[in-house]
Amino acid sequence: GGTVSVSYSVIDKCYQGTFFVRSFTITPAPAVVVNGPEDNRSNACSYADQAAADAAFAAWLAQFNVSGGCAPSGSFGEGTPSAPAYCGGATTVTYTVTDKCYQTSVRTATFTITPAPIVGVNVPSDMSSNACSYADQDAANAAYDAWIASFSVSGGCAPVGGFSDEQTAPS
Question: Which of 161, 164, 127 is nearest to 143 (CA)?
């Protein structure tokens, strides 16, 4: 943008002279405004499935935009970025902005899903004992119940362990 003023004079021997001042102005383009989200970090346990992670990533990605300028254009040079795996990963996005009255700029941000804690599965060793070592069926049931109670699972995103059928002690 800017203004240039010119002076134009007319002189002739049979014409009273005139003098003109005229301006040619180009109004500056509005400032280019580039917006983009900050880096995002979330936990894998925050997402029910990949579709939920994809939706969160799409909402985050939609925060990249550009306004102002003459006809600004923003694009992801690598095509439309994909969300990281919902069980853990990261996607770095590069948003490039161009405009005919603006020097190209780049905005980069990363969407990270931290993995859930490792799932720990605890199962007891096989148990074998002699029937004569129990005073009665109640004692065998108590030993069996203690053995069953030692199965467990931990870590992950609230894992649940269970048996596929009803468990009772052998007689």
Answer: 127
User: Is residue 18 helix, strand or coil?
Assistant: strand
At 145 the three-state DSSP class reads helix
| pLDDT (tens digit per residue) in 32-87 | 999 999 999 999 999 999 999 999 999 999 999 999 999 999 999 878 899 999 99
Q: What is the residue-wise DSSP string for 7-30?
A: EEEEEETTEEEEEEEEEEEEPPPP
CB 66 within 8 A of CB 34: yes
Q: Are 77 and 92 in contact (CB under 8 A)?
A: no
* Phi and psi at residue 70, to the nearest 5°: -95, -45
Q: In 3D, which of 24, 22, 28, 25 has the Cα closest to residue 7?
A: 22
| Phi and psi angles of residue 66, each rounded to the nearest 5 degrees, phi first | -140, 145
Residue 104 in tokens? 């190209």
12 is written with which tokens? 């002739």
Neighbouring CB atoms inside 10 A of 72's CB total 20
Q: What is the pLDDT of residues 75-95, one digit of tens each?
A: 998 788 999 999 999 999 999
**Among 48, 33, 107, 50, CA closest to 84:** 50
Max Cα distance, the chain (Å): 141
